[in-house]
Amino acid sequence: MKNNIQILIFIIFLVFGSGFNSYAQDLPVACGGGIVRYGVIGDNGNSVFDWSVTGGDIINDYNDSIDVQWNSVAGAHFIRVTETNLYGCTGEQYEDTVIVSTPFVDLGLDADICVGETYEFIASASDISTYLWQDDSNAETLIASTDGQYWVRVTDNYGCIASDTALLIVHDLPAVDLGPDTTYCGDEGLVFDVSEYGIYYDWFDGDIASTYTVYTQTQDQEIWVNVTDDFGCVGSDTVIVRSCGELEIPNAFTPNDDGINDTWEIEQLFIFNEVTVDVFNRWGERVFQSSGYSSDQFWDGTSQKGKKLPMDAYYYVIDLHNGEEPIVGNVTIIR
Question: 58 to each of 36, 98, 99, 284, how far by Cα in Å?
């Protein structure tokens, strides 16, 4: 915490009469840390004055006046002065009281929040008449949500000023990434690892480990996780793991343009984004190739040059590109 005290300059005179033992006006309240000038009028302007101060320092002595810098200890302090005139005669010591006001404000320690949160700065102070924040608001508190340094300036009933600053740090949420939606049909399990994103983990089924293993299911699964980092910020992600079911691969089709079974349809393959399908004739020549295999890509019994292929058995290789061994077999064109 840092207090910035505004320096105010006052000129106040302790007026002595024609004698040595006269009285002064009441002195105004001074602000802690401020500089105030105090002066006297003595015997025909030829006197020598001896000053002393409690609760402050005399930083300039002009004989008939002084500049006092008051310290930050609030309360009653004293100015004392003794006059010696031209003839060496010394009067009684004059003393007056100065009330020093030292307002105090504390915003507390620097604060941390996460993106999407807000923080309430509270100006802890007492006997304060006004507040002024950097956005020109004047409440006792300020709601903040962006990075940066925040300050408040308070003024007490005597016009004395204090201020404090604090830093607000806004942390990004963990950028948790479970990857794209996928299809899994293997036996070893599909492992999701989120250890790099934080220190606490909360999976959809209550598991709290940094990794989660998904096994082949008969239905699609929605997998989600919340990850908390060192700053208490929470990021999350969701992925759909599709069920591949049991692939139904026809062993024959009849591309005779009668509208029935004219193409080699393998409906489940469309869910495998990276699947490749290759078909070879009995001499090992590739007659069909496809990246992806949806309804507009089904093989219609023609070669890669568009020529109708003869009735025969053909060898296929289907690679799901999901870590499993390619699926191989034979399909027959019947005409």
Answer: 10, 14, 16, 106
